[in-house]
Amino acid sequence: MESYQTEYDKDGLLSETFWRTPQRAVPGRPLQRIAQNEVMSGSSYQQFQASVNDAWDLGDDEIISGIAETKISKAISQSVALNVINSHRNSSKNVNRSDVKIETETVKPQEEAIAVKKNEVKKIGGSSSASGPIRHYPGRPRPVRPSALISREESSESKLERFQQVLESSVLDLNELKHLSWSGIPVKARAVTWRLLAGYLPANTERRAETLDSKRADYKHLVRQYYDAEREEETYRQIHIDIPRMSPLVALFQQNTVQVMFERILYIWAIRHPASGYVQGINDLVTPFFMVFLQEAAPNKELDNLPLDSLSEVQRDIIEADSFWCLSKFLDSIQDNYIFAQLGIQYKVNQLKELIRRIDLPLHEHLQTHGVDYLQFSFRWMNNLLTREIPLPCTIRLWDTYLAESDGFAIFQLYVCAAFLLHWRERLMQERDFQGLMILLQNVPTQNWTDSNISMLVAEAYRLKFAFADAPNHLHNAGKSDR
């Protein structure tokens, strides 16, 4: 029996390929050996890291202005997103791999309505040929009940009622809550739903109040133990420098009260996770939790200019403690992104590179021909989970889906980044030099994006995940070129 190379080789480097291979021989299926390639093309990761040590400076998102907006019909985009999701989620539990077919579609503007009605899906290279029931492999979408998808015609009140029915059950059906949350969570239900999906709040309603009181008291103890005592100077200094640079155009985040709350959250997390410590960019991952819990404490208020001192001390303590615990749970599955040399991100960048090569070889070759290394643009996408690439309300909507992913969002995020890159394909192919490509990739024009754009993005990511996960031979010829 042949052996297969593990994700990390003996030298501590990561395998470039991420297509899963069987751990034992299967009758009738030839085994494949995946050759080891270099971890990063071009210069070493350490050299690149040194060259982008200012990657989170204030002006990095303002290099260019005036890029024309992509025109997207809101009605069409929402319909397409919902129909793509619906086409996958209505699969029966015993569907065979041979039943998974992806059909061709070439959508012209005047044909969009017909395409939505027929619920066609783009062809990306053929169907899987193996037979037998689909197993629940990590990274492969699981069959989802139709109740996971709320019709676009239903009112927001109707969707909120569905959430309330699930949330008020004596014993929560967490799978049902995930199904409902995947396509977006109503604002009024978001805070409690995020606590539940993050694993911070127990499913049993009778234990929730006691658990919240206990965890919030624990956080106060951590503040006294770590933050109010003698601090580790280097960690605190880096956090103290980064916090004022966070969202400089939003008055809320320039308030001293808010910045101190973020400092405490990040410092305590870093001290409690010494394998990684504080890494630039983690501060961006606190923001969605902070905003969701702030919105719960101050409903129907304009948050951008809300004086946080107008809230009671109890309210501020709740926001801070819940943001800390939910962040901790959220980062558990991606902590290797932030350990020494950030090996997890290196591996994910290689995954994205191979995935795009298999999905869209012309685009991959276009980037390679003009000297664009995937690390140069996708490092920040992976490190900040796209929080720097899309508006904050869109990030919160995206995290509804991340938190609802049954296999954990870390795998799904790879396909989201792939869908995000492919979204700009036409414009990227029109760029004819390295500078033009990098300006677009590092400053994608998403300032006017809304929830409908995120619905399209996650629908496309789901489609890619369904088509490519666990498919090492799919588009095999596309994987031969690596320039």
UniProtKB/TrEMBL annotation:
GO molecular function terms noted in the UniProt entry: 14-3-3 protein binding; GTPase activator activity
Xref: SMART domains: TBC (SM00164)
Role this protein plays: May act as a GTPase-activating protein for Rab family protein(s).
Coiled-coil ranges per UniProt: none
Highest rank taxon of the organism: Eukaryota
Alphabetical list of PANTHER family matching this protein: LD44506P, TBC1 DOMAIN FAMILY MEMBER GTPASE-ACTIVATING PROTEIN
Organism: Pieris brassicae
Location of region: Disordered: 124-144
Rab-GAP TBC domain: residues covered: 184-406
UniProt KW keywords: GTPase activation, Phosphoprotein
Name the UniProt record assigns to this protein: Rab-GAP TBC domain-containing protein
Phylogenetic classification of the source organism: Eukaryota, Metazoa, Ecdysozoa, Arthropoda, Hexapoda
Gene3D superfamilies per record: putative rabgap domain of human tbc1 domain family member 14 like domains, Ypt/Rab-GAP domain of gyp1p, domain 1, Ypt/Rab-GAP domain of gyp1p, domain 3
